[in-house]
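Bug #77: duplicate submission created two jobs. Keeping one. Sequence:
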Amino acid sequence: MHPRRSAQEVLLCDLCETVPLQSHCELCNINLCVNCAVKHLSDSSKRHNVVPFLHRKSTNYHKCPDHADKHCEIYCEKCGVPVCSTCALFGKHKGHDVSDILEKFSAKTESLQKDLEELETRIYPRYKEMASNVETEKAELETKYGKLTTDANEQGEILHREITAIVNRQKSAIAEMKTKHLDALNKNTEEITQKMAELKQIMSDLKSILKSNDVSLTSTYKSRNSQIRTLPLTVRVTLPSFSSQKINKDQLNEMFGSLSPFSINTEHGDTMKSAEAVSSPPVKPLLDEPRVTATIDTGYYTEYRYLYSVSCLSEDQVWTRGTNDTMKLLNLQSKLLTSIKTKSGREPEDIAVTRDGDLVYTDDSNNTVNLIKNKQIQTVITLQGWRLLNVCCTVGNDLLVTMISDDRKQSKVVRYSGSTEKQSIQFDDQGRPLYSSDNSIKYLSENKNLDICVADWLASAVVVVNQSGKLRFRYTGHPSNTEQSFNPYVITTDSQSHILTADCDNHRIHILDQDGQFLRYIHCDLRDPWGLCVDIRDNLFVAEHYTAKVKKIQYL
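Kept job's structure:
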């Protein structure tokens, strides 16, 4: 017996070993005096449950199945089970690495608490949110499909009796699509609900284990959270639209119009990051006075050539493009490291760098998005009916591309995984266009919170939607500035979820928070800032259009 634990002496604090104990932390399994209890609770790196010593839970040792008079007070590391001293010294666990069962019990108890906390505060609420989103979509079906039915009826009334049969067929098709849509959502709801029930059961079981204080159950517990983090499949349905045509009695079936194809697709659920992996980046406050730390002469400037874009490869190397067919990789000393010409021989519309360090460029002369790997150019996307504008790479290694229809009447943002279209963002919840329909630039960037931010120059607005494509806000310039126009040419984001947009005509950069609140300007004697990018250390690179220089600016 430990001399401090003899009946003749006062029991002392396990930490300071000088003051009589008064409390006990059930999660860490240590005894504490008053002062040490306060210090112990101040450690916020893990959870604690400090109770009066006399009210502590008694440790429930499991009896050894092979030696009825022995309790399992030792943990066999090799076999992963509690064992008694006889088994550890002379039995089948002889020679195995062992540890104190109370230490293992404490560690496992902490692991159980973390799993339960993650299930209750992060995973289950996410499932609940998914179920709520599906219910919301179901609730909107009547309105959305009702509008389709109304459009079909209005067209039918114009054509009177000649078109009645076609109207009925269209209504039937709409009803069938609605039924399939609802069936798909109901099935998705059932799957999510079933998973939620399983989660409730797991959480209940974990609570029971924790409440029982059973060493055997606790020490043999195996976490399933890593499996459960992979969320269920998400149903994505392409809602049909109705296209009407001018009446031609000789070609009623053809001219009446048709519904766009109806499809039901499922996407693999995202795997949620563990609580440890979701730690926020360190907070970096804005500098009162941003400063230029380097200036790069790109060499693009001539009488008819200017600089357009800059994209960071690293904190000291940037890709640039101007009004010719050559893209240049330069260092901070303006040294040309490499250059690549476009496949078409025409100037690129935009450039971006992938997470793997490969260069991507858009070419509006042939409507392609091209990937350059090991100096080899591979065309990954070719459009028809739409003209490419600008491109950015996402944290998930997707490509986001802005584009405008050939008739200049529609514009949208499309997400690609490789050459496969995954998402199209074009309208708000009221069916109104999110972006101006023009042939002008529409640079874009994915924010840290996965919002998609577009600098819509002609609309004089920064348009921000969330990951699902729903409008979050529009920023149209500082509210107090009524004298100068706001012309956002280009946009980027940083690790703090700041949105930075270049107001080229006013020679400055606006810094916004992730919710669109203006924070401050960056001036730094900028002239016509056109291109922007931020490196991994949150240094800002600004491409000046007419001087053809890139300025590296520290603003955090």
